[in-house]
Structures are given as structure tokens and as C-alpha cells.
Amino acid sequence: MTRRLVATYSIAACDLEAGQWGVATQSKFLAVGSVVPWAKPHVGAIATQAYANPRYGPGGLELLAHGLPAAEVVERLTSADEERDHRQLGVVDGQGGSATYTGSACMEWAGGVTGDGFAAQGNILLSEQTVLALAEAFERTAGEPLAGRLIDCLADAQAAGGDRRGQQSAALLVVERGGGYAGLSDSVVDLRVDDHLAPVEELRRLYGLHQALFGKTPHADWLDLGPLLAAELRERLGRLGFEGDLAEALREWAGRENLEERVDGIERIDPVLLEELRKR
User: Fold this and answer.
1) Domains in the chain: how many in total?
2) Domain of 152?
3) Considering only Cβ atoms within 10 Å of each terminal Cβ, which end of the chain, N or C, has fewer?
4) Distances from the Cα of 223 to the Cα of 211, 250, 260, 261, 268, angstroms
5) 280 residues of the chain, pLDDT tens digit each
6) Same domain (yes/no): 134, 266
7) Quick one: which of 12, 259, 20 has its CA closest to 144?
8) Do residues 159 and 246 share a domain?
């Protein structure tokens, strides 16, 4: 049997208050995001690695969708797998329960730790400090947005030693029902760094771009469109070639810049949108 060694560290986690589940991972492996992370809103999150069994992803989510707790999902998946001694798995269920599994034949250092709303695990690591750093970062950042917390987890784990073979790829997946693009997608964040010398740093950079384009500013922080601001918008948009009706001009410019998610009528303006316009 041909195996794919996805030696890596990862954290599967959730924010029950926000209704979000996600996985973050880093590895000395090309395109780790194509194998390790799986998640579904109000169902759970799964990380499958070591000599990875990608079927743990959809199979585990199906079991979680039937209401099985994380520990039972791990037991069912691994007990039915003849190669389980070579697998590693982390699961968080729809209620925030968590479980992690490390097969006896996984390469050292290998192991995992769980807590409220997270399962952290890794293999071929310098030491257990990498996994402990994942857990500590997650607990330390409680109350912050889940996606940013998960990137912080990866960064702290890398600083603690990381994959002893080095770095190559990283990925971040966060889901929320209707929380993605146009409210029609469940993928709040789905970013992958497939091949990079510093994949976690690059993942953070991409997340910053993602937030600028698709992040949501609370409407309480939006600015009222008074006469002076309306005049500024007309002048700036006009210089960029967008004239005529102000609402239409703003919508067309925002669409060209992939900022359409930050437009909602013309009575109030997202300050992030305004800042981007002022940069042009």
C-alpha cells in the first residue's frame, strides 16, 4: 500500500458563540491544505495527517452530522482502519467536544492534546512543545476571531520548534453557516500556501488581504454620508473615471476592486472602503 506522509502539526477548533469551526495546519509537505483540513458548520472540524487517510475527512463529518461525539468518531474511524497505527487525527464536534488520536507507529515526536473546543496534534516534531504551544495560544486568545486565533496558534507552534524537517506549506479553513461570500457560502476563510519558505508568515499576509476585501465592519462603525463626504466621494471616483449617479459609481468602482462586499447602499459608508478609495 502506498502511503502519503503528511507529517505536520495542526489544530481543529471551534467558536461556539460565533458559530464557527475551523482547522489550521503547517507541514514540510506540498499543499498540506489539500489533505488535512475538513470542516462543516454546526457539525465539526477534522484534521487528518501522518500517513494521512483523507477519507477520515468526509467520513468523520458524516458521523458527526449524525450526532456522534468527537471521541466516538475517532474510535469508529480508527478501529475500521487497518493502517490506524500510522494515522493521526484531531476532531472537534458540533458541541465543542474534542478528541485526538496518534497511532503507535507515527514518527517521533508525535502526540496531541485536547481542551474545550480544540484538538491539537503533530508528528515528526522537535518536541511536545510544538503541540503545547498550539494549545496555549488557542486558550490565550479566547474571545478573538477564530481565524486570527488559529494563525497565532501556528506561529507560536513554529516558534516552539515546529516540524523538525522544516517548513513548506500551510492552510487555514474556517466555516460558518452563510458566513462566506455574499452570504451564500459557508467558507468564511479558505486560504492555502502550497509551497513557501515561510508558509505561516505568508498565510498571515494572505489573511490580511482577505480581511481587507471580505472582512465585515460592524454597521455601527460605518460613516454617515453627509454633504462633505459625498462631495469627496464624487471627486475621488470621478478622478478614477467613475462618474454619474454616486451610488452606481461607488458600486462599479468597488466591484472592480473586489470590494463589493463592503457596499450596502449609499446612506452609510464602510470606513475600510473609504480608506481604500483614498489610497487610490
Assistant:
1) 2
2) 5-214
3) N
4) 19, 15, 17, 16, 5
5) 445 565 689 999 999 999 999 999 999 999 999 999 999 999 999 999 999 999 999 999 999 999 999 999 999 999 999 999 999 999 999 999 999 999 999 998 999 999 999 999 999 998 999 999 999 999 999 999 999 999 999 999 999 988 878 899 999 999 999 999 989 999 999 999 999 999 999 999 999 999 999 998 999 999 999 999 999 999 999 999 999 999 999 999 999 999 999 999 999 999 999 999 999 8
6) no
7) 20
8) no
